[in-house]
From TrEMBL:
Stretches that traverse the bilayer: none
Enzyme class at the top of the EC tree: hydrolase
InterPro entries: FBPtase_class3 (IPR009164), Metallo-depent_PP-like (IPR029052)
Protein name: Class 3 fructose-bisphosphatase
GO biological process: gluconeogenesis
Organism expressing this protein natively: Staphylococcus pseudintermedius
Domain of life of the organism encoding this protein: Bacteria
One Gene Ontology term of the molecular function aspect: fructose 1,6-bisphosphate 1-phosphatase activity
Length: 391
């Protein structure tokens, strides 16, 4: 590289720097800031995978940092708190809103409540200070609730070296309690601690699947302070449905029916399943093999179970029909073993697999044309068109 070219490159770099920094001092400050950050300890990175729509379990893992937060509380308070007090503090940091309500109901006097507030706020401040020790003050400030930034910073960095600001710090705490801000401050400190314990979250596949609340997981991730996602096969399935793939849509609807999660389709994503139910009611009856799995959060009536059973059969047959032409069109997929509808003897209700004939139980072939097993009925085609229009 010639001397002239090198000078020109330097000038271009300087022009770019000048767009953000208008003085030598500001450039130097930024260099000092960036270089010094490189010598800080690496923030904690948290890996989670196979969430499968289990929102409550995912929330618990986030709140405790896979046990990392509990360990930090033990590190700080193991010589000062007994096991019961330790567990109370841990529960408060995990679930501050719920825990505050329970604790407040146990106070007999206003003085008891004020004493608990002061003690708890000071402990949480100590915990925030400990969990933020590997970060800059600037990064900590970004983790604080904006409405409490000034108060928290004043209390975090208090110093009694000259014993001339004790009354000032006591007054801050006293006013927080008197102005009924203690509950909100405690919740804010607990949430800040949760954020500081996990610097960056890696989600490794399958936010969606059989669980009931993948939509809530997505909402959480959208608002999370630092996250990256590696999509899993179930996530791609939902993306494919949104992109217009009928077979992807049929597959995810079948999975939702199997695990009694069809309400997410209508309630969370606003897709009308009435056309599918009408088709299912017309062609299908009860079928033990297609009854939905028991859902821990639900107690459906027998009529609701029967509806889901019929929908499960209807969408399963639609899925199998839609898969057939794709498998035949793309032999490189090597999925011929999935062309089961073509191997069925519909008269004798048997199927030939690997040269051996097997009887078929719990059949639901009322919409299958024996001459063209993978051909959709006109009604099935209309249902899928309407469902895709709703996506």
């Amino acid at each position: 590289m010639s001397s002239q070219t090198e000078k020109e490159l330097k000038r271009q770099y300087l022009d770019l720097i000048a767009e953000k920094f208008d003085s030598e001092e500001k450039v130097a400050t930024e260099i000092i800031h960036l270089e010094s950050i490189l010598d800080l300890p690496k923030g904690t990175e948290h890996f989670v995978s196979d969430l499968h729509g289990e929102y409550h379990a995912f929330q618990h893992v986030l709140r405790n940092g896979s046990g990392n937060l509990q360990q930090k509380i033990h590190d700080i308070f193991k010589s000062r708190l007994d096991p019961q007090e330790m567990n109370e503090l841990i529960a408060l940091v995990y679930y501050p809103e719920e825990k505050i309500k329970r604790i407040k109901n146990g106070f007999n006097t206003k003085s008891e409540r004020h004493t608990w507030y002061e003690k708890t706020i000071n402990r949480l401040l100590e915990l925030v200070k400990y969990t933020s020790s590997k970060y800059t003050r600037s990064k900590l400030r970004k983790s604080l609730a904006p409405e409490y930034t000034f108060i928290i910073e004043e209390l975090l960095y208090k110093s009694n070296q000259f014993n001339n600001k004790k009354d000032y710090y006591d007054a801050i705490l006293r006013q927080i309690i008197q102005l009924n801000q203690a509950d909100k401050l405690i919740i804010s400190l607990a949430n800040t601690t949760q954020r500081l314990v996990v610097d960056h979250l890696h989600v490794v596949g399958d936010i969606y699947d059989r669980g009931p609340h993948p939509d809530k997981i997505m909402d959480t991730l959208i608002d999370y302070h630092s996250v990256d996602i590696q999509w899993g096969n179930h996530d791609v399935l939902w993306m494919g449905a949104y992109s217009g793939s009928k077979v992807c849509l049929a597959n995810l609807l079948r999975i939702c029916a199997r695990y009694d999660n069809l309400d997410i389709i209508e309630d969370a994503y606003g897709i009308n399943l009435r056309p599918l139910l009408t088709l299912a009611e017309k062609y299908y009856d009860d079928n033990e093999a297609f009854r939905p799995k028991k859902h821990p959060e639900k107690n459906p009536s027998e009529s609701e179970i029967l509806q889901i059973t019929k929908i499960h059969q209807a969408i399963a047959m639609i899925q199998f029909k839609l898969e057939g032409p794709i498998i035949k069109r793309r032999p490189e997929f090597e999925m011929n073993e999935r062309l089961l509808l073509d191997r069925v003897d519909y008269r004798n209700r048997t199927i030939e697999l690997n040269g051996k004939v097997h009887p078929i139980e719990n059949t639901c072939f009322r919409t299958v044309d024996r001459r063209q097993p993978t051909a959709l009925l006109e009604e099935e085609q209309e249902v899928m068109d309407k469902l895709l229009t709703s996506v």
